[in-house]
Amino acid sequence: TVGASSNSDSSEIVESMEDNPDGGCHIYRNGYSRSGISVVEGILEVNIIQMTSIQTTESQAGNSLVDFVVTCQGSLPTDVCTVVSDPTCQMSKSVVCDPIVVSDECLLTVRRAFEEPGTYCINITLGDDTSQALTSALISVNGGEST
Question: Is 0.90 surpassed by the pTM of this model?
């Protein structure tokens, strides 16, 4: 058994170690400790305010491009992830994540490609080092047009 004690600034730390029959070693600490807590605002809300189909050339005919205009409240995001799923939002078809730089107002455009016409569930997640926020939408892509 090993023991140590300290007494300063009205804090007391007592530390002891003892061997156990099961081969392990346990450390017991009793006393007071201090730590700091930082409260961060985080990303509070994300909204898709507009979806616009982008006209493509004949060489890009296989892909339909859609721009999503996204706003958020709270702290500014540093990355955006888009998950494209089936209409029930159960089976993921693709996931794309990109780093972003947002100015003092959280307003950004996210462009995504859709390989074939159909109805999709879109999840857009904005994140930073301490938080994430998500918004979802159903989108119907019909060969260059979206609703």
Answer: no
